[in-house]
Each structure stands twice: as C-alpha cells, then as structure tokens.
Amino acid sequence: MSELDATSLYIIRRHGDLKHIYGEAPRALDAARDYFLENITAMAPRIGQEHSYLLADKLSVPDILLTSCLDWAVSIGIPLPEPVARYHARVLQRPAYKAARVKAFTPPPQ
User: Fold this and answer.
1) Max CA separation in the chain (angstroms)
2) Does residue 72 contact residue 37 with C-beta atoms inside 8 Å?
3) Which uninterrupted H or E stretch holds 68?
4) Domain residues of the chain, as ranges?
C-alpha cells in the first residue's frame, strides 16, 4: 500500500492539488504517476486469479486499503489495468462499500 499511496499518490496530491502549499513539481508528478502505473501493472496478473479478494474469497483490510488507493487513482485519471479494474468494480458493488462511501462523502445537513 505504501508503494501506491505514500510514494506515488501522495506525491501527486502534494504537488498537484496542493501545489499552492508545497510548490509545483511537474517532474515529480510525472515520476509518481509512472511509478504508480509500474506497480499496479506488476500486481495486475495476480489480482483476482486465485481468489475474489487479495487474501481469500472474503474481503479483508488489505482490500479496503487497496480500494482507497484505486479510488484515488481513478479520481485523478490514472487508468487501471483490466484485472485491477475488474477487482475494483467488484469491491465497489459491495453494499457495505456503497454505504460507507455515502457516509464518508455526503455533506452534513446545514
């Protein structure tokens, strides 16, 4: 997760959306995006091959962490390899995921 989050997605956030705080760094943005793609592409052949989820056929903490990274990547326009996109879509369809997303991203009443 750190390879996807801390060493790539966070750099993109820091020098993209938060460039007014941390400064512009176009080369860092490109390198971080490439690094994410390199890592997710390396993972792709193993995702969904033996089990529905990362560790078995039951959702676990690693799935939640990976899904948050995939959500973030998709939101900033990073394409997912097909096996990863299928895995991501499967997690997104879970009722508990949908409920948690509504709770996390629905603004409180004014």
Assistant:
1) 47
2) no
3) helix 61-75
4) 5-105
| Residues of the chain where predicted confidence (pLDDT) is lower than 70 | 1
pLDDT given for residue 3 in this prediction? 81
Q: How confident is the model at residue 101, as a pLDDT?
A: 85
Q: What is the pTM of this model?
A: 0.87
Instruction: State residue 13's pLDDT score.
Output: 93
42 vs 23: CA distance, rounded Å = 30
Cα separations in angstroms, 30 against 35, 46, 52, 68, 83: 9, 26, 32, 21, 24
Which residues, at least 6 apart from 82, have a Cβ–Cβ distance to it below 8 Å?
44
Residue 63: name the closest of 44, 88, 28 by CA.
88
Fold of 5-105: Glutathione S-transferase Yfyf (Class Pi); Chain A, domain 2 (1.20.1050)
Evaluate whether 108 touches 43 at the Cβ level (below 8 Å): no
Question: Phi/psi class of residue 53: alpha, beta or left (left: φ > 0; alpha: ψ in -120 to 50)?
Answer: beta
- Strand ranges inside the chain, DSSP E: none
